[in-house]
Every structure is written in C-alpha cells, then in structure tokens.
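Table S2 (text version). Query chain:
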Amino acid sequence: MSHSTALDTLLELSAREADAAAESLGKANAQRADARQRLAMLQQLRDEYAQKLQDHTRTGLSFASYRNFVGFMEKIDPAIAGQKDIEATASARVERAQLAWQNCRKEGKTWERLLERAQSAADGKAARADRKLMDEFAARASFTAKEAG
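Corresponding structure-token output:
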C-alpha cells in the first residue's frame, strides 16, 4: 500500500504544480491582453493625430502647429515600437506558460494512470486472496462433510 501512498503524494504534487502553472498562464494572458490594449490605444492615438494633421493641412496650418504634430509623431512611433516589443514578449511568455501548463497536466495524467494501475493490481491481488481463502474454506467444508458422512 506504500506504493499507492507515494503515488497519491506524487499526484497531489503534480496537481499543485498544474494549479500554479494555470495561475501563471492566467497572469501571462492578462499581461498580454493589457499590452495589446495599450498598443491598440497608441496606434489609435497615432491614427487620430495623423488624420488631424491631414485635416489641418487642407485648411491651413501654421509652421509651429505643423512642428508640434511632427514632433508628436516622432515621439509616438518609438512608443508604438516599444509597445510592440512588450506585446511580443508577453505573447512569448503566454506560449511558455501554456506549454508549462500542458506539461504539468500531462504529468498529472501519467500519475493518475499509474495510480489506477496500482489500484487495479491491488484489487486483483485482494480478489485472488479472497478466492484462495474461499477455496480453502470450501475444501475444509468438503473434507469435514466427507468425514462426518
């Protein structure tokens, strides 16, 4: 029965690892979603400013205003590039966390199968012991009945 206890412990540890991996995956997904949202916001802001620049150039734009628009664009483009890097890093983190979680689940299923096999073997051994005991009992009863009769 110590086999079963060791397997139970391994199964429990594997389940804890899978839970921790699932939590890590959830955090990584949330970070990626946040990075994507920030990237979309920056891109939308850039598009809005580009549209405003086009609108103002049609209606007339002072040199100072034009310089402000261009300066803003020169600052937002690196910010977008940086946010793309952050989003790519977050996506890579999600992929690693997903793989770790899947591996933990796979390991847990392996321990479950081993535990089931051990339980099945123990059940089979107990059943054979019961049959042997019943056979011995039947043999004694038969022997006793022959002696009495």
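Notes on Table S2: The two ends are 44 Å apart (CA to CA). The first helix runs from residue 2 to 59.
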